[in-house]
Input
Amino acid sequence: MNNENPVRWFEIYVQDMQRAKSFYATVLGVEFTQLDSPGIEMWAFPMQMDAGGASGSLVKMEGMPSGGNSTLVYFGCEDCAVEVGRVVKAGGQVCKDKFSIGQYGFCALAIDTEGNMFGLHSMV
Output
């Protein structure tokens, strides 16, 4: 591998796209862009092609259920306590409030409106 981060893209499978978009927009304060993908409804998180880190999309596709998968996406935050504080109001569940991961900062774990677990990460 080159000197790059190994994660380049993620997909979060959903059953109710509007509900999922509303949840992540509320928790993360982002807007989505619809991607042109025949037969698959995809809405991308914000992305900058020349910046580091990974982007991805919410995906609604026949035969691909949400929840119960082994993919865990961590979203970067200034202070993950802020975003985890929005989860319940947006219709999700908090699994674990902000906790220390030592020299690597802090995390919080939550479940979205589609049953997918996701993480929030910050250095403070």
Notes: The two ends are 30 Å apart (CA to CA). The longest strand covers residues 93-100. The first helix runs from residue 17 to 28. Helices lie at 17-28, 80-84.
